[in-house]
Amino acid sequence: MAENAAVEIRDDREHGNLVAYEGGESAGTIAYFVMDPAPGALVAVHTVVRPEHEGKGIAGALVREFYAMAAREGVAVVPLCPYAAKWAERHPDEAPEASAELVHEAKQQLRNHPELF
Questions:
Q1: DSSP symbols for the chain
Q2: Is the dihedral of CA 19, 20, 21, 25 positive or negative?
Q3: How far apart are CA 75 and CA 111, in angstroms?
Q4: Residues 6 or more apart in contact with residue 50 via CB below 8 angstroms
Q5: Cα(42)–Cα(33) distance, rounded to whole angstroms?
Q6: Sign (positive/negative) of CA torsion 93, 85, 15, 112?
Q7: How far apart are CA 105 and CA 47, in angstroms?
């Protein structure tokens, strides 16, 4: 399953979504939030690819861009999303591991603010 180079990925920070577009239509999304205090880590909560776009590497392209975006911003990624966490395990060179303390804090913020998801 090769990652799709034809996918355009855009960050909708205001709504907490990293969105992949294929052929001009939304194909997949990572729902995320930025940990407080800013600039905090980027926390991936959920990755979804529309059924008609599955099997094209869109989820992997989204997670790869999510880590690249965090690197450009100089912040860590906390992959609470199971897909993002598995991707990170398979790509340790692109996905630095977040500290246990940071993961704990991200989970706490999500528990305290369920509207973030």
A1: ----TT-EEEEEGGGTEEEEEETTEEEEEEEEEEPTTTT--EEEEEEEE-GGGTTSSHHHHHHHHHHHHHHHHT--EEE-SHHHHHHHHH-TTTSPPPPHHHHHHHHHHHHH-GGG-
A2: negative
A3: 21
A4: 26, 27, 28
A5: 6
A6: negative
A7: 20
Tokens encoding 60: 């992997």
Predicted confidence (pLDDT) per residue in 27-69, tens digit: 999 999 999 876 689 999 999 999 999 999 999 999 999 999 9
pTM of the model: 0.90
Per the rule left: phi > 0, alpha: psi between -120 and 50, beta: everything else, 62 is alpha
